[in-house]
User: Fold PLP-dependent aminotransferase family protein from Undibacterium jejuense.
Amino acid sequence: MKLENPTPINWKFSERAEQLQSSVIREILKVTMRPEVISFAGGLPSPETFPVERMKAAFDKVLSEQGKTALQYGPTDGYAPLREFIAASLSTADCKILPEQILMVSGSQQGLDLLGKVLVDEGSKILVETPSYLGALQAFSVYQPQFESVDTDEHGLIPASVAAKGEGARLMYALPNFQNPTGRTLSIERRMELVETCARMGIPLIEDNPYGDLCYSGEPLPKMLNMNPNGVIYMGSFSKVLTPGIRLGYVVGPVPLIRKLEQAKQAADLHTAQLTQMVVYEVIKDGFLGEHIPTIRTFYSRQCDVMLEAMTKFFPQGVTWTRPEGGMFIWVTLPKHIDSKLLLDEAIQHNIAFVPGGPFYANEAEKNTLRLSFVTVSPERINEGIEKLGKLIKAKM
Ligand code: PMP
Assistant:
């Protein structure tokens, strides 16, 4: 049975839905699916790093030994052994994190949405870095906040700007490690100052840290979470250290906040997939990440070096860029008169893609900026792509 003349849809979307927009990156990614395109656009981790066999064995083991639990509904806060494991790994000598401070989420992106839901009202002031992670701006936008852009310099976010602009803010969203999009890292001194400033002003400080483990040398810098566990909401993810397709992340915070987020999550999706949580626990419980993460670091660090070298060789004078100490991104600043969106239109004609910087700004955009990702393209193609991009930029100088 089917209507003979189906009615055309003219339903009214909510005001909230009316102001939703597709992510610019997702739109660009459609173009970059073409194999001839050299894409520095995606924020995708390299599939070379995915531990496919290990995951396969773990799925097998979990399903054989605990199949009925793994395929059943689970608790909203997440699989207890995994939460215990994460709590222990985040604890330091003088800062113990408890499992009840942890909520497992379907990717840290869901954590951003839930935080928006429980912390932001229409018109609430929220503080974000200049520039900031586009996906967070999108997630928070749904709740119609007033974005306040915190000043940054070549060393990242400037804490004094939080003090100057933050009065009454509902949250401060910060990316201290190998920031998306700039690749910058916040010094220990600035972390401490930011933690103190937010604590003094009563502003919840969100520390989003999906790239923190991907440092190219030395050890990761201390987490702001451990500097003040009562004032910081920490977000972690398995996307960049295992695989993004499993959609698994976590939010860590004071228990009253976690209970509130849990209520919001219940309404959103009941709980994060039990099977994937059990599989990830199976994969990491005996220290697998300790061997696996260094291989990702080495791989990404080499890729980054290749791109930086190519940029030095092929980009004209007057163009500057960041030198990340970890993560997946380089941020490029062109001379003021070059609009990177227009440059992208041309670059795509030459089968090169990147993400123009504009959408990463919550307020006034610096249109002469762009983001390059170096992890999914082979060294030869990085060289080829950067050479072509260099020529296109030179033509506009
Ligand atoms: N935060 C940042 C800064 C990111 O770059 C990303 C993914 N690109 C996310 C959060 C979302 O990650 P997940 O896959 O855990 O949802």
